[in-house]
Each structure stands twice: as structure tokens, then as C-alpha cells.
Design a protein that fits this description.
alpha/beta, disordered N terminus, single chain, Rossmann fold
């Protein structure tokens, strides 16, 4: 048995060595408008645009993404007179990727509050995309006094069986945003299994895989330019992203809000979806319309999972119209 494990490790290490690029220091990837800050013992990276004295809009990215998702949203908000902040959640982008961290969506929502405290922000409009939409929903539920308005973009809020959660090529990549396969939870405390999973992830998420994921999310291969690909791929060049991804995937208990909890969210809410979203079905948004008491839904015909990337003019216009109303 031990020989089998050693053999597997050697094979997987060989695959990893052949397929991966060397780790890159996140600091070297930071932009001029970016900064690092420690919140709850974790160093977070964020990018800003606009005057800090203006009303704040906090942008929360989805599963496997980063601040890069909002590169076209930040300047539009700033030009309209807002202070826009796109933050890399722990485990993603250029932020720390610890294994021993509470990645529950309730705790990530709490961390956003502490992040606001660190920046001196009392209240903000909170925008969440995909998995970030569920974190934004937890924020609205638990900290309504810190919220101006709520925006959920293709939010992984309703589980798969009810029209959300998503799918990619028959896999469960997007579905992991809300819940991991039960079997994985049994491995959380097994350091050998976690180590092997790290190696498998490192060997699997190569440049081709990340490009295919981006194409699936965009719904149009022509839109995934080299610049777009490199922007999303940079997070997979930073240290320990595999371990962070494993940790958050194993910590899914309690992430799904009940119908009663969703119905108690009183904030003005905008839902934005693409009708051709292959990751989180628009039926999830339609279900949220039935549950949330103060909500409206905007659907872009023929658009995939990332409208802020693929139809930024329409997305920014609808976002600003809602915030300014």
C-alpha cells in the first residue's frame, strides 16, 4: 500500500513539474491602483478607482476569478462619482490562500465588513458575481445596516436542483460554488489526501484548462483574447492556490441560504443574468425574483456567465441606473 502511494506521488509530481510554471510573487503582479491589506489575519489584495470620499461600491468576484472580473466596471463607477473597490477574496487572485481559514460564505461576508472597517467605509453598495453573489446575499442578510443596495450577477445562490449552481462540460466546477461532493468532506483532515489533491489540481489546471473555463463562462471564444486569458490566469501562477481552492471547496456547510432567510433580505436588489449562462442558469435568478421582497431582474439575451466582461456597456449602464435611482 505504501509503495502504491509513493508511486502515485512520484507520477503526480512528474506531471506537475512538466505542466506548471514557477510560482510568481503576488506583489509583482499588483497594479498601480492596487494595494494589500491584512484583514482577519489574511492579506487581501484590492484595486480601486475614484475618490474615497464618494459613495462606495464593493465588487466581489466569483469562484476561480479575481478583481480582474471588474476591470471594466471600476472606471465606469469612478467616472460616475463613486469609490469603486474590487477585492480578491481569500484563496483567489493575489490575496493569501491559507488552508486553515474559515471559507464559509457567512465568514467571508463578515470579512468584507472588516475590510470596510479597515478602509473607513460605513456603508456600501455590494455587487457579487457567481459565488460572490451568495456571499453578497449573506452580507445583506447579516449586515443590513452596512448595505446601501445589493446587486447579484449570475449568482450561485439557488442550488443546482432548483435552477442554479451551474455546470461545465458535465463536471461540477461551477456547482462547487455552493457545495462539494460529500465524499470530499471525509478527506478534509487527511494530509496525504489533501497533498495528493493539490498535485492533481496543479497538474490539471494548466493554461489550456483555464482557457477552456474562460470560454465556457464567456460563451464566446472570440471574446477570450490573450489579454483576457492572461488576466484570469495570473492567479494560477501565485503560491498555494491549489491548497486554498481545496480548503474552500471542503467548507460548504451552511452556505445555502434558506427560502425564509432570502425572503428576509429587505435591501433594494438588482439581479443581472445572461440568458445563455451555462454555469448558473437564469432560472436561478427567476427563483430569486419569487423569494426576494424588493427585487428586479435584468436579463441579457444570448449572453453567458460574465456580462460585466462581455457586455460591459449595458452592464455598467444598468448598474449605475439602479444605484443612482
Amino acid at each position: 500500500m505504501h509503495k502504491l502511494i509513493v508511486t502515485c506521488i512520484v507520477i503526480l509530481l512528474t506531471l506537475t513539474a512538466c505542466g506548471l510554471e514557477p510560482d510568481v510573487d503576488p506583489v509583482s503582479l499588483a497594479a498601480d491602483n492596487g494595494a494589500f491589506i491584512e484583514v482577519d489575519g489574511v492579506t487581501l489584495y484590492y484595486e480601486t478607482a475614484g475618490d474615497p470620499a464618494n459613495p462606495a461600491v464593493i465588487l466581489i468576484h466569483g469562484f476561480g476569478a479575481s478583481h480582474f472580473s471588474y476591470r471594466l466596471t471600476l472606471p465606469a463607477l469612478a467616472d460616475a462619482g463613486y469609490y469603486a473597490i474590487a477585492v480578491d477574496r481569500p484563496g483567489f487572485g493575489l490575496s493569501d490562500k491559507p488552508f486553515n481559514f474559515d471559507y464559509s460564505h457567512a465568514n467571508q461576508a463578515a470579512q468584507i465588513v472588516h475590510f470596510m472597517d479597515a478602509l473607513g467605509i460605513d456603508t456600501a453598495t455590494v455587487v457579487g458575481h457567481s459565488q460572490g453573489g451568495n456571499i453578497a446575499a449573506h452580507f445583506a442578510l447579516n449586515y443590513p445596516e452596512r448595505l446601501d443596495k445589493l446587486v447579484i450577477v449570475a449568482g450561485a445562490v439557488i442550488p443546482n436542483e432548483d435552477g442554479g449552481g451551474g455546470d461545465f462540460g458535465g463536471s461540477t466546477i461551477a456547482g462547487l460554488a455552493l457545495g462539494a461532493p460529500e465524499l470530499l468532506g471525509d478527506f478534509a483532515d487527511n494530509s496525504v489526501i489533501v497533498f495528493l489533491l493539490e498535485i492533481v489540481l496543479g497538474a490539471t489546471f494548466d493554461r489550456d484548462m483555464v482557457r477552456e473555463l474562460a470560454i465556457s463562462a464567456y460563451g464566446d471564444e472570440a471574446l477570450v483574447t490573450d489579454e483576457v486569458f492572461e488576466g484570469y490566469y495570473e492567479a494560477f501562477r501565485t503560491p498555494h492556490w491549489e491548497r486554498g481552492l481545496i480548503a474552500m471547496t471542503l467548507q460548504t456547510e451552511g452556505n445555502v441560504l434558506t427560502e425564509d432567510e432570502l425572503a428576509s433580505i429587505e435591501a433594494e436588489t438588482l439581479l443581472v443574468w445572461g440568458s445563455a449562462d451555462a454555469w448558473v442558469s437564469v432560472t436561478g435568478g427567476e427563483t430569486l425574483v419569487e423569494l426576494l421582497p424588493n427585487v428586479e431582474l435584468v436579463v441579457y439575451d444570448g449572453i453567458g456567465h460574465s456580462p460585466m466582461d462581455t457586455v460591459p456597456e449595458a452592464f455598467n449602464a444598468d448598474l449605475l441606473e439602479f444605484i443612482e435611482r
